[in-house]
Design goal:
- By secondary structure, this protein is α/β, with parallel strands linked by helices.
- Helix content is 40%, strand content 14%.
- It has 13 helices and 9 strands.
- A 5-stranded parallel sheet has the order 7-6-5-8-9. The protein has a 4-stranded parallel sheet with strand order 2-1-3-4, with helices on both faces.
- Helix 2 (54-65) links the parallel strand 1 and strand 2.
- Helix 1 packs across helix 12 (283-300), helix 5 crosses helix 6 and helix 5 packs across helix 12 (283-300).
- The radius of gyration is 20 Å and the shape is globular.
Amino acid sequence: MKDLLGLEQLSAEQIGYILDVARPMKSLFTRSIKKVPALRGRTVALLFFEASTRTRSSFELAAKRLSADTLSFTTSTSSVTKGESLLDTAKTFEAMKVDFIVVRHGASGAPELIAKAVKAHVINAGDGSHEHPTQGLLDIFTVLEKKRKIQGLKVVIVGDILHSRVARSNLWGLTKLGAHVTVCGPATLIPPGLPEIFGSGVSVSTDLAEAIEGADVINVLRLQRERQQGDYFPTVREYTELFGLTNERLRGAKPDCLVLHPGPMNRGLEISSEVADGPRSQILDQVTNGIAVRMAVLHLFSGPEGLPAVPPEEKQTTKSVQTTFKVLS
């Protein structure tokens, strides 16, 4: 597989392989020198057509910790302002012989369009309301780190499901690994047909108290008002009263329930500060894990064929990771 465009295209084994490789990558963070030579001589171009703090910084740091060179792109200071097309911009970077093009774009499908036109590996860093695969991977990695399993967990995704690329990547990844996912939010912000698309491992609720009863994990989504084309609920205050996550509402979940949020947060709107900063919050761990997961993705896709369709067996995977780690040491 040459490109990472979404978790829909990955098998459960490929997802597990990426997460296996992310673990030794994270162990590098405890070293005094956190930089290794795995991608020395390679170049990663960061094409972000939308604003981003976490994802852009995370990819840049991941590339630099693997010793890759990075090229940054911002729309406001690029030839896009002079009318250059998306593909011409991508081909310009390809002509500079970059090895990776990491793309964030407001239009769903933009990374796939680029991937078909260039030889460089294309990594989707979030496209419209389609997918955000590395966010999905780092969310799963964070849950796996704390719960030691995904199979059989009850995961609730609450908020603006309709406009969320994070929700879609989580749905693909979590259901393939055996979790049961309940999506919860106003009926107007839940797209129809989710159980038909993602299978019997997905259910839908518009009652937050009912949805989080017995939950192992709650992933709170930002209300993406910049993507909303109409009035999906009467007032923000009403949304917060019905779907904002507070400590009081968390009482219905399991005592060791994890709280995730992909950021940026709207404190006091979709999540209270007491929950965001509370003992169940994994929000800052998600940021840390994002670097390890993106290092693993860049490393695994750096070969001529990219990610293997059939990952090595478990013993071989361990050996492969140990070999990788040895090479990195």
